[in-house]
Amino acid sequence: QLQLVESGGGLVQPGGSLRLSCLVSGRTSDSWYIYWFRQAPGKERELVASIGRTGVTEYEESVKGRFTISRDSAKNTWYLQMDSLKPEDTAVYYCSDGNYWGQGTQVTVSS
């Protein structure tokens, strides 16, 4: 069984930055994908970014050029660097391998 724990959320002003972390334990391997999702109040959960074993990344259109997904295999930790944040980025952010999910971390972008 896999455990994923997100951290790094918080309150930030528009234009600011945050870096989310996803610590993975239980089955450490870089042979699979890690995804970052988010869910805003009253909206469905949406895929924000993904990174595969080879390092190939994909992003949802609205975050391209602002968010960067990365990993540190030695630390079993995946990251989501979020720059130029906008109020519409406000949501609970989750990491997942497609089967297991973390508990989520709240990101609020507000002045």
General description of the model:
This protein is 0% helix and 49% strand. The protein has strands at 3-7, 10-12, 18-25, 34-39, 46-51, 57-59, 67-72, 77-82, 91-96, 105-109. The N and C termini lie far apart (40 Å). It is globular. The protein is mostly beta strands. A hairpin with a 5-residue loop joins β5 and β6. The chain has no helices and ten strands. A six-stranded mixed beta sheet has the order 2-10-9-4-5-6, with no helix packed on it. A four-stranded antiparallel beta sheet has the order 1-3-8-7, with no helix packed on it.
Q: Count of DSSP helices?
A: 0
Query: H/E order of the elements?
Result: EEEEEEEEEE
Shape: globular
Strand tally is 10
Distance between the termini: 40 Å
Could you estimate the helical fraction of the residues in percent? under 10%
Strand content: over 45%
| Low-pLDDT sequence parts | none
Structural class: mainly beta
* Average pLDDT number: 94
Spatial extent as radius of gyration: 13 Å
The largest beta-sheet arranges its strands as 2-10-9-4-5-6
Biggest sheet, open or closed, and with what strands and sense? 6 strands, mixed
SSE layout:
Elements: E1 3-7, E2 10-12, E3 18-25, E4 34-39, E5 46-51, E6 57-59, E7 67-72, E8 77-82, E9 91-96, E10 105-109
Parallel strand pairs: 2-10
Antiparallel strand pairs: 1-3, 3-8, 4-5, 4-9, 5-6, 7-8, 9-10
